[in-house]
Amino acid sequence: MTQRARFWSAWRASRGWVTGAAVTLSAVLAALAIATPARSATLPGPASFTAGFVDDYLFQSPDSTLRSTWMARAHRLGATSIRIDAAWSQIAPSVLPPGFNGSNPGDPSYRWSNLDAELRTAAAAGETVVLQLSHAPTWAEGPNRPANLQFYGVWRPNAQAFGAFAHAAAVRYSGHFRDPLAPGKMLPRVTTFQAWNEPNLPSALDPQWSVGPHGTFLPASPGIYRGMLNAFYAGVKSAQPHAYVLAAGTAPYGDPPGVNRMAPVVFDREMFCLTPRLRPKSCPDPPHLDALDHHPYGLSPTVHAVLANDVSLPDIGKLWRILHAAQRYHRVLPAGPKTIWISEVAWGTNPPDPMSGSAALQARYLALAFYESWIQGVSHVYWFLLRDAVAPLESFTGDGLYYKDGVAKPAAQAFRFPFVAINAPHRKLTIWGKAPAAGSVTIDRRVGRRWKQVLRLRTTAGGVFYTRRSLGRSPVLRARMGALTSPAWATAG
Is 80 exceeded by the pLDDT of residue 25? Predict the structure, then answer.
């Protein structure tokens, strides 16, 4: 098994909650059939909304044709950004050689060629990149690694070495580093860097817990990660002062203390040196970041997490409360506006996943997820998988917006032109969408077999439109801009 395949296998194994959630979802379905964007005075959410993709199998394929084909397809759907994982252990030397300079991207022991190629392809497709750095080489793991530890690159990673690697990556992809394969040209520029992935899972960062007095369990991973994040932030900013640093996306669910996963509320609270009542604790070096991140997988875009410290999509407010407390008590640096991103979310289809819902329901969930994210102040959302997964991602078999044969699902249209019409008080509908471009949007109502225009709305400069109107009982609506239309949205009675 390749190193990348081992990472995916470990990543999949850490998500036992996905299978269980999907089983429950099938029953539910049977019953139900870079900076903080400004808010307009008339909008309850951000004035802009950006959607992108995560799909390492396609975007990091060694097949350049496959990469370029699917990055271009992502761009045609309106995605302007993709997330790419740069595995530290694959780029750095496997064994630490004498004289190795981890801060120097030109050190001959570094192996950048695969990542260089992926970023060239992204640039050619018109995509910006969120570059996520993760998985330490063995020599950068901490001392006393347990002999029976299943995962590699996760045991107490050395913060100083991680910061040096971040600096090297930020220098190499600053837009001023010569492309070794193209004399006279520079490698593409990356301006958004993410420090690690899902550090509240033991498959990504270990140990999660330590044993305290009287056999109690104390959070360990937030402190470890805080040191890594601060070194990462310093490394990136010393190379690109205006680059954007994104904290690692947290997984949505946790276990009881000492068992396995740490709940995201507990992890973030401890990372920001806050008590359970969100009061400040001692914190000699508060976390440095520009944005927080979370992965709010769940049963549906509107189903809350059962446990208070878990965070599914409608629960993002829990993270805002932590972030605002951290700002209030100066437990996050630098001072200034912060935002929350969602760098992974998805729902699947049957086929190919028998535990998922229909393709039409996936399209509805995608649009609803984008609205739920927006109404909670999230301006950047990344859908997990552009095309249906192949092994070893069995848990996410049907999460793509295209089937394996390349045929588009209805959710591809919903991604291009998301639109919802949700019941609101006083017999009104909340109408929201993200148009393919800024301008004027027409809202049509289906009358028999035809469509009749009922509204005309102006979007923000970022393409967002929003209103509350009375449009009769249970209308079927769509949004239209020129020849482009959203999927039809049937409102509830």
Answer: no
